């Protein structure tokens, strides 16, 4: 499910629940309920960084960590896009009905974002959490320096004007991995 469709589905479900049951809206949504629309649009407008064999950077390790958690990559995640990662990306693309190229393009990033979903402190996916923590550290938000995962995510969100909730959702994920991730919005 794409990010836009997921957001529409959540909004529709919340509206139905409020109409039928008089329930209150959740206190916090992924990426914070107070993300200004202009910020969300600016983050979503940033193109994904295309990764391919030979690339060496923090995003490569993140992709390897996500694919390890999804059981497509069977090595310790590293920051080098090698032949093993190409094979894992191809297997992932085939499983998700994407064109099999071995390249991490926008369609792959969107699928990865959907598979990651929401990540908060205590998440039960260790390879994923390790990859996200490595990315936060690379971006200047080490969980060790910020007092834990939640505080590091909140600091990252605050600096990018994303609604602060300490949860990595689709907007925070894109802000971490799209072009310009090293710079605030």
Automatic annotation (TrEMBL):
Species annotation = Streptomonospora nanhaiensis
The protein's name is: Murein L,D-transpeptidase YcbB/YkuD
The signal peptide annotation in the UniProt record is 1-30
Q: Which SUPFAM superfamilies match?
A: PGBD-like
Entry keyword annotation includes Signal = yes
Keywords from the named record = Signal
Which PROSITE patterns does the UniProt record give? TAT
**Residues covered by the Peptidoglycan binding-like domain:** 62-112, 147-176
Keyword Signal carried by entry: yes
């Amino acid at each position: 499910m794409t990010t836009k469709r997921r957001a529409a589905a959540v909004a529709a479900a919340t509206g139905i629940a409020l109409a039928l049951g008089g329930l209150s809206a959740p206190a916090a949504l992924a990426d914070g309920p107070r993300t200004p629309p202009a910020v969300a649009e600016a983050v979503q407008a940033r193109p994904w960084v295309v990764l391919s064999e030979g690339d060496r950077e923090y995003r490569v390790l993140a992709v390897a960590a996500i694919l390890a958690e999804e059981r497509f990559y069977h090595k310790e995640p590293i920051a080098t896009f090698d032949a093993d990662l190409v094979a894992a990306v191809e297997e992932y693309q085939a499983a998700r009905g994407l064109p099999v190229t071995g390249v991490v393009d926008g369609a792959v990033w969107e699928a990865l974002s959907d598979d990651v979903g929401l990540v908060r402190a205590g998440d039960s996916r260790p390879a994923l959490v390790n990859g996200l923590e490595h990315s936060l550290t690379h971006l200047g938000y080490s969980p060790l320096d910020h007092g834990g995962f939640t505080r590091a995510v909140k600091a990252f969100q605050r600096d990018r004007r994303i609604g602060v909730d300490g949860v990595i959702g689709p907007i925070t994920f894109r802000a971490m991995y799209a072009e310009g991730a090293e710079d605030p919005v």
